Each structure stands twice: as structure tokens, then as C-alpha cells.
């Protein structure tokens, strides 16, 4: 499943993802942002699980399984551009705002903002086609919900 998704993401003209693959790509992006500071903590894993449970109406076991699949995908994937392109193609703009908010929730989960996380956050929001202003609003929403 992961190798197939990677092959589709790496294709010169990737087709839009189905719901299951879009979930996995988003989850992998959450993992990538959590790992970007080289400190992938239990707090960040718990936050990702909570986001996945809420976003996809999963039980804890389903969220953990999806996160573990996303960890494997993220470890094998070459770059962030393909994740964000796949998500951008699969998700309407208004829903991408919630993707950016979820990314901010992970960045803020450990109570510290790292330069590597901030840089990846700016890149991801830009590649998702979300403006700096909307990303800042999403960050404020994430801060308010923490």
C-alpha cells in the first residue's frame, strides 16, 4: 500500500488521491512536521492521534494504526512537495485551512516552536496554497484550542 501510494505521488502527473490515500498523505505530513525538529515526542504522537480521531471519526486503535502507517510513509517519502501537492489536489481550499490548523496543533503540541518546524510550516502552508494571513489565523485557532 505504501509503495503504491509513493509511486502515485512520484508520478509526473499524479492523479487526485482517493479518501484513504489522502488521509494517509495528510497523516504523513503531520508526522513530518512533528519530526522536523528531530524530537518526535510522545506529546506530538498523542496530538496526531487526537487529530486523526477527530478528523476521521476513528477510535484510538484506528488512529494509532493510521499514524503508524503514516510514519512508515513519511520515512520513505522523498520530500514534502509531493505530500502537499497530493493534499492540495484532493482537498478544497476551505478544508485545507483545517489541514493547516492541524499542522499548527502538532507544531505547538510540545509547547516549543522550533525554527525547523516553523520553516516546514511556512513551506507546507505555501505549497497547500494557503496564504500567510490564513495560516496565521489557523495558528491562532490552534493556540486557542490547546
TrEMBL record:
<feature type="domain" description="Co-chaperone DjlA N-terminal">
    <location>
        <begin position="23"/>
        <end position="140"/>
    </location>
</feature>
<protein>
    <recommendedName>
        <fullName>Co-chaperone DjlA N-terminal domain-containing protein</fullName>
    </recommendedName>
</protein>
<dbReference type="InterPro" id="IPR007791">
    <property type="entry name" value="DjlA_N"/>
</dbReference>
<dbReference type="Pfam" id="PF05099">
    <property type="entry name" value="TerB"/>
</dbReference>
<dbReference type="InterPro" id="IPR029024">
    <property type="entry name" value="TerB-like"/>
</dbReference>
Amino acid at each position: 500500500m505504501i509503495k503504491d501510494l509513493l509511486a502515485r505521488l512520484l508520478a509526473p502527473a499524479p492523479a487526485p488521491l482517493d479518501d484513504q490515500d489522502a488521509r494517509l498523505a495528510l497523516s504523513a505530513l503531520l508526522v513530518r512536521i512533528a519530526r522536523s525538529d528531530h524530537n518526535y515526542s510522545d506529546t506530538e504522537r498523542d496530538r496526531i492521534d487526537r487529530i486523526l480521531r477527530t478528523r476521521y471519526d476513528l477510535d484510538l486503535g484506528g488512529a494509532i494504526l493510521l499514524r503508524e502507517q503514516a510514519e512508515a510513509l513519511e520515512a520513505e517519502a522523498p520530500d514534502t512537495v509531493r505530500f502537499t501537492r497530493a493534499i492540495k489536489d484532493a482537498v478544497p481550499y476551505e478544508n485545507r485551512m483545517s489541514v493547516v490548523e492541524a499542522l499548527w496543533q502538532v507544531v505547538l503540541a510540545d509547547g516549543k516552536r522550533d525554527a525547523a518546524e516553523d520553516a516546514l510550516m511556512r513551506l507546507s502552508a505555501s505549497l497547500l496554497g494557503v496564504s500567510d494571513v490564513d495560516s496565521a489565523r489557523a495558528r491562532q485557532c490552534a493556540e486557542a484550542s490547546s
